[in-house]
Amino acid sequence: MTDTGKRRILVTSALPYINGVKHLGNLAGSMLPADVYARFQRLRGHDVLYICATDEHGTPAELAAQAAGVSVRAYCDEQHEIQKKAGEGFALSYDHFGRSSGEENARLTQHFAHVLEANGLIEERAMKQVYSIDDGRFLPDRYVEGTCPHCEFEKARGDQCDNCGRLLDPVDLIDPYSAVSGSKNVEVRETRHLFLRQSQMQDTIRAWVEASEDWPQLARSIALKWLDEGLRDRAITRDLSWGVPVTSPDGSPREGFENKVFYVWFDAPVEYIGATEEWSKKIGKPDEWRKWWRTDEGADDVEYIQFMGKDNVAFHTVSFPVTIIGSKEPWKLVDQLKAFNWVTWYGGKFSTSNKRGVFMDQALDLLPADYWRWYLIANAPEGSDAAFTWEGFQASINSDLANVLGNFVNRITKYCASKFDGKVPDAGQPDDAEAWIITELETRLPQLVQHYENMDFRKVAAETRAIWAAGNEYLTKAEPWVKYKSSVDDAAVGVRTGLNLAALFGIVAQPIIPEAAKMILDAIGIPEKNRTMNAEGLGDVAGLIDALPHGHAISPPDVLFRKIEDDQVAEWSEAFGGEG
RNA sequence: GGUUCGGUAGCUCAGCUGGUUAGAGCGCACGACUCAUAAUCGUGAGGUCGGGAGUUCAAGUCUCCCCCGAACCA
Question: Has this prediction a pTM greater than 0.90?
Fold first, then answer.
């Protein structure tokens, strides 16, 4: 933190794989909470950089492109745009949404490989691998299929058997054949690959993990589990054409690796840095990324927070740190991790083929992004897996958004329009009701901020809702519609305070439901510069509830949230699955 | 199989280092109000905190065993 109190916060969310639109569970487990957090910290006045990207390399992308009958590059170009659009549709406020297939990532990945090798952490090793004579190439794990040596399933993939679930080595398959051409004309040949000697880094990584005492329990225990089992050396190259080429330090193709690329898990996390460099170029400051990633060039005061699903924890706490720390260069390491469990569909898995679950693009065809954002944050899979159900979704939206927030804004703005000419009333003095709401907010607003800082998203949503609910309670106490009959001035205080509360509710709603929040703040006419959640603003509650200029004109917004009807739930359950 | 995390009101969950009558939201019942998207506000019913044993002056909160669920195992 600088002496102005302005923090520099780097936020990344796990890179979604290029292969297809993500479902709500993927959204809820990394991109969405990262966005909510980034938005909050920006509103606090901090310097936030939120980076994400598509993870494009690897066998699944090649296979999908092949199935679609297009080149991998074309396939990724198309899929990247689709995912980018889906992200925009959900109002994900990336500063940059990059691509791991970009040149920045390639250069950085090659750089890391070179320095790691210079530090003795990468070595070439010979290994046996399946070679397809008809295809004229070595076959990476998933390109080989055959009979499982354990269960005799006939279509086991080289890396894993879909029948018995065991992990396999492709050379152990019985009657192997090429998944590319179907040719059985294959043989086991010796080839060479680069291995990352993670075992050498065991103690260093353990010391780093153990020093990171404030990591959440989920992240820490997964990391320590891996370390307890011992880090294994892993091959970081594959026989593919789609990926980061393996080069010599001078940039030329490495001898014997002309037809190989780095394995996707090695280059993907480097894209956090690569995407930041892409952003840097985009804003016309090609060296700016270094201030976020090089501790010797200004990144020493950066707070770096990673958001990810639990499946990614090992890569972020062990694998990628091996790369970063092993380079012995002053790169920024993660400070805080937030790991999520899964969102399930009625307790089961999302499945495209079985019509179970809603994917990001489909969701936006049904309802505005805010509806999904609210539900997924209020029910974030933090402590354990969380089940999405239409019934829970309906209850949450109708109660929290439509009844508590939407109706509050509606009732106070409409009443103001009908009785006070749509202008913030000037008359009247605060009394007990105003004192009550001030006390209420003086305890709740700091709690809200604390929950954000702790990244407790369910609590963030619950506290946000409680603040909105306090507005309704206030109106019951102030009852301007009753006072209006005896004293218009007494009623005026309640309306004025109510309008200011509506504005405040819009402000605190911004990180979670940005679009609806904007509608509220626009309707009340809050200038952009007054929409912050900084410490000074939230600290002066008495000022907050009388902040609008007296006489200022407001206009009731349209209905903010339409309720979800029972027949819609029935229809969507039919279309997307439901009721287990 | 190993490891980890869970099992608290009908539902979804909070309950930090053990300490007054175990909490919230939804749902439900009743009442109030009428500005509002039949919204809101209040009150209440409802739990032997998965089961068993133990430690302690005191356990949802610690220990052991068992049952059930979920996840991870490169």
Answer: yes
